[in-house]
Design a protein that fits this description.
By secondary structure, the chain is an alpha+beta fold. It has a single domain, classed as 2-Layer Sandwich (YaeB-like fold), CATH 3.30.2310.20. It is 30% helix and 25% strand. The chain has two helices and five strands, in the order βααββββ. Strands 1-5-4-3-2 form a five-stranded mixed beta sheet. A hairpin with a 3-residue loop joins strand 4 and strand 5. Helix 1 runs antiparallel to helix 2.
Length: 111
């Protein structure tokens, strides 16, 4: 096991894009049921919080081919994050039937 890969919860940093994604998801769901929208957003956030102590347990994002870019799933949603030494940076949240949103992964910023 590589030191620092497991057991140490990292701080969670939500990128502006990921926050917009959550806002868009909330807006869409609350058209039908505002309470359900609140519950769903809380569920997505909680899923990220559960990933923080073991960030490499999430699967590597197949479209990116970088070990430090991982994702966890919550039902049909993909939550993509970048594992850094002290943080996990949530990059995007999107429905799994959609194409991976290119341009969400930093290309010149090492973890």
């Amino acid at each position: 096991m590589t030191p620092g890969r497991r057991g140490k919860a990292r701080a969670i940093v939500w990128t502006a894009r990921a926050v917009r994604d959550l806002e868009d998801i909330r807006t869409y769901i609350e058209q039908d049921d505002p309470a359900a929208a609140d519950r769903w957003i809380a569920r997505l956030v909680e899923r990220v919080e559960r990933a923080a102590p073991f960030p490499f347990a999430g699967r590597a994002v197949p479209e990116v081919h970088r070990e430090e870019v991982r994702e966890v799933l919550e039902r049909s949603y993909r939550i993509v994050y970048l594992v850094r030494e002290r943080t996990i940076d949530v990059l995007t949240v999107f429905e799994g039937h959609r194409l991976f949103p290119h341009g969400t992964v930093p290309t010149d910023d090492p973890p």
